[in-house]
Each structure stands twice: as C-alpha cells, then as structure tokens.
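Bench notes, afternoon.
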Amino acid sequence: MGLGGHYSSMAAGPVISPRLVQQNGTGVTYSGSWALTSFSSYSGGSARYTSVAKRSATYSFTGRSIGFVTTLAGNRGVVYIKLDGANVAKIDLGTNPTTYRRIVWSRSFSTLKAHKVQVVVVGTYGRVDVDAFAVLK
C-alpha cells in the first residue's frame, strides 16, 4: 500500500551524469598567466592560481548543474562569478581553517543546455585557486 493508501506508477527522470573537470580540462580557458601548483590535497593533484586582478578562468559546458571547486584559506582572495556573462556572485575565499576541494558556488538549471561560467579575480588581496568544476549533465 502506498503513502496514504495512494498508488502511482514509477516515473523515469533524466539520466544524470556527474563529472569533475580539472583545472586543465577540456573547455577551461584562462586570461593572462596562471601559475601551476601541485599538491596531493588538490583535486587531481594540481591547481592553477593567481592574485592578479581581472584575470579569469572560464569554463564552457553543457549541463544541468555547475559548481566551482577551490581552496579556502586565510591567504586566499575574492572572486566574482559570472554565468553566461552576468555577475551572479562575489565570494571571499579568505577563511580559516584551510579547506581543499571545496565547492564554494553552484547553480542548477531546469534544462540541459550550454553555459559559460567565469571566475574573475578581484585582486584586492590573496591568491585564487582554480581546482576543478563539478558538472551534472
């Protein structure tokens, strides 16, 4: 017997395919130069970083959900997140204790379609790491 004596047939939803796209993955591009650092605590063992204002990392993808994976630490800076060209968030990554592989921003969409997320360094203090992007297709 179903909840409250009600029955229904099973309904199939969309097939969801999670992916973790590393900082050097297909679809990720950078403006200006970003240094490469290797450390086992980073997703995939490496990350790109800069503290220079207005440098950006852009990820073009097709999906139902996106998340920005980075490091939170006392010496980290501030980023703007742009989605499809519009500013959608300002995030201060400078917090203790240090936390690696953290999704600090995410957005879900009602349909599967192409998007572009851009992480823009504010540059007032601290460095910004681009570790990975988490995507649900």
